[in-house]
Structure formats: structure tokens, C-alpha cells
Amino acid sequence: MLRQLALATILTLLTVGPSTANEQLDASWQQFIQGLQQAQQSLSDPEYLLAEPSGRNLAEGYRYMLGHLNRFIESEIRLDTNYPEFFRSVDMLRKWTGENPDAMYLKAPIDASGYYRIFGTISSTGSAPNMVTFQTVTDNPGSTGELAEMALCKNQTLDFLNSFDLKLNQDSAFEILIGPERPADHRGLFLSSRKTMLCPATGQKTLRDATALAVREIFSDWAREVPLEMEIVRVDSIGKSRPPISAEFMSAKLEKIATELPNQVRFWQLLQNNVLEVNNDFNGDGRRNLPYNGINSPAPPFTAGGVAGAEQLYAAGVFELSDKQALIVKVTAPVEPRYMGFQLNNLWFEGPDQQNYVSSLSGHQLALASDDSRYFIVSHRDPGVQGWVATTGLSKGVHAMRFLFEAKPVKENMPSAEAVLVKFNEIGKHIPADTPKVSPEQRQQQIAIRQSHIKRRWRAH
Q1: Burial (CB count within 10 angstroms: exposed 0-12, middle 13-18, buried 19+), residue 101
Q2: What is the mean pLDDT of residues 50-71?
């Protein structure tokens, strides 16, 4: 009797299982399609729109949405905290968060209760990146679609290391251990994945768990610097086989993407409009956080939910130019930064094509002028001198700077930045007279170096 009952139960499971699984997956797929439609509708919703939904702007919006989708598909379906690997959280398609065009952004999922090892080596084919940072972070900003997540400290950096901390052996290699607490006998580089953190907005201290390791490799000399060779492993999973996926797994992932895809599109538009005040003085306090055709003073980030680049200083503003205008940004740094970068962003918070245009410049790519300052010239047309940052045809957008120092300068040695709007044909009046000229052939060579570097950068991982 028991054998007959057991057999009947097995037959029932074999018969009902696939049907139930298909219904579950079908329902989750419909939710996924609805989430995709909601994200698409946000591209032209006046609540989230920063420019007219037409032409290039809307085309870039669709690309932006699909870039998020592309990132979600890989991060949610491919990645596993038990079998970690690095993936590109940003690349030439997956542009978001006003990403640094000089950086390669990598992420690996981690379980805060586990221990992980990172093995890294400087490539023998070129120089190391100008700067590398490793951060254990609690979450991606923007997943809720609401700006309130920033004040609630949903996204925090628990611990970080950078190039100044790395200890290379005779083979130009390094190793980092990640875990909830440092083992008593460990003496090497360590990143904490579990930490009690203060939320400044609430005044509360909470034990937080990291969900990912975020890595930034920053390149200043695009002709020579190449990505690191790196691997991440979970110590107690080496050699084990990863289980096949289930209907429940896929269903949960489809539903998560359905929720977070429209949230990400909306969040970054709200951030630009309500917090950065790209279009107007949103809070009516008489000033804009990003000055119009101006630039604010370099300072730690006041946005990005606590997961911006560790120890970086930022400065930014809004540009809006006609073909007959240029914005000149003069930057003076009494102490030369380890890294400095200037870039543009479109109104989806994407950096324009840095591979085929000189749409960004690092400190290495723009030499100091004779007055010991740097002059970044934002314009639609090539002015024929060093310092040109091409708008790529964008009439309006955001310009931003990043600074990294080995030691934060004292107040009087902090970098300063100022911007002036000028007539294009009067650029020469606002820069040193001996500013080097750049011929069309030299400009082409600049772009050739950029094209080669970007291919090499993204092929390496």
C-alpha cells in the first residue's frame, strides 16, 4: 500500500510540475514585459524628462534603457555569490550614473558571511592603471526609483582599498581577502563585508552587509595604461559545481528586473532634475546645485548614495551652447592630483562617445598651460588648440570633474575651478597666448589613441 502511494505521489509530481512551472514562468514573463513597457513610457513622461522627447535625445533614451536591461540580464542571471566573477557594470553600451569615461567599472557579487580572495597582476603588455579602487558596497543606487533611498542610506560603502594600499610581490601581483571579519592570523590586505555603519540622516547605527565588490580601474594615459589581470574566488566554493537554474530562480529574476528596470530609468532622471537641478532651481533657494554654464567648487560628492568613488572630489555644472559659443573651464591645482578628469554627460546621465570623440580629457591628456592651470574648452567645433572637449553635437548637458589625491590637500591647496561663457571666435582671448595649437591631423591621432585604448580596455575582462 505504501509503495503504491509513493508511486502515485511521484507520478503526480512528474505530471503537475512542468505545468505549474510554466504557469509561474508565464506569469513572471508577463510582469517582465509590463516592467519593460513602464520603463519605455518613462522615456517620454514629463515627470522624468529633461529635454524634448524627439530626435537624438529620445534615441539615446531608448539606448539608455536597453543598456540597463543588458546589464540586468547579465548581473541577475549570470552572477552568483557562490561562484563569483567580475562583470562590467558599465561599458560602452551600459552607460549610467554619469560614469567616468576614464574608468573601467567592474562588480562581483558577494555574500557578506563568506570569504573571498582577489588575485591581481599588472599586465606585462603595458603600465598599470593610474588608480584602482576596491569597495565593498551594500547595494546599487536607484533600485527603488525613489530619491528617499539616499537619505535612508540604502547604498553605502563599507570598506575600501586603493592603489596607495596595494602591496605588490616580485611578480607584480597582489592578493586581497574579503570577509565579515579579519581572521586572527591574517596579515595581508583585507576588505570588510560586514560593518556597523552610521546613517547621517537618521543618526542610527546599523549592522550592514555588503552585496557586491565594486572595482574602478582609472586610466589617465590611454596610450600606455592597460587593465589589471584579476580573478575573484569564494574560498569555500573552489572546485564545486554550480547547480542548474530552476523555474523558481528564473521567475524571481524576471520579476526583479521588471521592478528595477523602470526604477533605474526614473531614479537618475529625478536625481538630475530634483537634486542636481540640471533644468532649474528646483527647491527655490536661489541657487542651482549645478551652476548654469558655470562650475561648483571641488568637494566630496553630495549624491550617489554613498557608493561614489572612495576619496574622490567632484566639481560639475551645466552647459548649454550654440555653435557660436564655448565654455572655458579653468582649473588650478596647487598640488598636482594623482588623477584628474574632465567629462561631459548627456541628459540621460550618460557620458557621450569617448571612443570616437575627444569628449573627455584626463590630467595626462591635457598638459598644464604656462600659467600652471588647465583650460578645458567645451564647444561644438574644434578650436584648433589643446584642451578641446567635443560636445558631440549635444546642445545641453552636464560637465563634471573628478580629482584624486594621495593625501587630501589642506584647504589653501585645494584645487579651484571657474567657468566662463565666451564667443567661439574669442576663445584665444581667454587662454594663455602660448597655448599649443592642434592640427586636424593631430586631432585625428588623439582619436586613434582613444579608439585603440577603448577596444583594449573592454576586451580585457
Answers
A1: buried
A2: 93
Q: Which three cell numbers stand for residue 7?
A: 508511486
- Residue 340's nearest CA partner among 298, 304, 380 is 298
Q: Return the number of other C-beta atoms located less than 10 Å from residue 3's C-beta.
A: 7
Residues 6+ apart with CB under 8 A from 133: 160, 161, 162, 163, 215, 216, 218, 309, 310, 311
Q: C-alpha grid cell for residue 99?
A: 560614469
CATH architecture of residue range(s) 304-459: Sandwich (2.60)
Other beta carbons less than 10 A from residue 177's beta carbon: 16
Q: Angle at CA 109, nearest 5°, toward 122 and 201?
A: 105
Nearest to 249 by CA among 24, 6, 49, 8: 24
**Integer Cα distance of 326 and 387 in angstroms:** 12
CB atoms within 10 A of CB 460: 15
Nearest to 135 by CA among 257, 266, 308, 10: 308
CA dihedral in degrees (104, 110, 112, 115; nearest 10)? -100
C-alpha dihedral sign at 120, 122, 124, 129: positive
- Say what the pLDDT of residue 9 is: 46
- The conformation of residue 271, written as its DSSP 8-state character, comes to I
Q: How far apart are the first and last CA of the chain?
A: 59
Query: What are the residue ranges spanned by the domains of the chain?
Result: 304-459
Confidence grade of residue 123 (pLDDT, cut at 50, 70, 90): confident
Any idea what DSSP says for residue 241? P
Pick from 193, 204, 27: nearest CA to 112: 193
| Single-letter residue type at 22 | N
Is pTM, for the whole model, over 0.70?
yes
CB count in 10 Å sphere of residue 214:
21
Rounded to an integer, what distance in angstroms lies between the CA atom of residue 217 and that of residue 133? 7
Residue 2 has pLDDT above 90, yes or no: no
Cell of 70: 543588458
Q: How does pLDDT run across 242-295, given as a tens digit for each residue?
A: 999 999 999 999 999 999 999 999 999 999 999 999 999 999 999 999 999 999
Here the cell at position 190 is: 583585507
**Can you state the angle between helices 2-42 and 247-270, rounded to 10 degrees?**
20
- Beta-bridge partner residues of 420: 328
pLDDT tens digits along 297-333: 999 876 545 556 667 899 999 999 999 999 999 999 9
| Banded model confidence at residue 15, pLDDT cuts 50, 70, 90 | very low
Residues 6+ apart with CB under 8 A from 416: 297, 298, 331, 332, 333
pLDDT band of 11, cuts 50, 70, 90: very low
* Mean pLDDT within 192-213: 95
What does the block give as the cell for 38?
513602464
